Amino acid sequence: MGLSFAFLALVAWGVGDFLIQKSTRRFGNWQALFFITALGTIVLFPFVAKDLPALWTSSKELILLTATSFIIFLAALFDFQALRVGKISIVEPVFALEVPITALLAGFILHEHLTLVQILLVVLVILGIFLVSTKHLKFYKEMKWEKGVQFALLATVGMGLTNFFIGISSRVTDPLMINWFLSLFIFIACLIFLTISGEWRKTLDHWRTEKRLIFSVGIIDNTAWVAYAYSTLYLPIAIAVSISESYIALAALLGIFLNHEKLKKHQYLGLIITVVAVVLLARITEM
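Now predict its structure.
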């Protein structure tokens, strides 16, 4: 069951990030987040309604869910900005850093340790990220970073923390509860921002004209997070995130083949190294 959920998260995240990029470029970051979390809040509510009275009486669970929601909210803003301004085939390999960040947290806190082979693969991931995220690979000149990379790096730290805390929250409450709670948290934050910024007219216009994209990205992205949360019930967090993180291969290939994004030779090399290393890390960790 754990492997099935992790594989579902892999596919949904790969397609979801491709659709998120289209959404952020069409709607903007806040509106895209608003639509995704509104759908998650509404659809998941019937499944968690019966457990809400017990949740409100547990201060520890509320603190954990609120902290997790706040972390993913900040991470999502950087994540969406990276996808909006950058090439998906560039920013996706940077997101691979979620694997070592989450694995290190699981190692230090839950005592899930990496083998020597896994550590070497993490080093290859970092090397691949360096290659794929620079335009001009000349050490005697100032490095020119691709657009979106700085936002992707910030998002990666937040997402690494998010992966870990969603795993913990899923075990303390349940996968549907943490996903509903964080959707509600981010939905309210977006609601406040859109009200203050006066962007409701644009939001309603996009709702009228872009329902297919809105429902597609909302369903797929929420499915990915629910599937990942369930996978952590059956697998160690480090294993669950390692397998599901292989989605970068799918997302990067979608960017190249569907968006016709062009990379330089060393960037293609970096993409290959990163994707292969993450896939191998997932496979070895799975064994």
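The CA atoms of residues 68 and 143 lie 35 Å apart.
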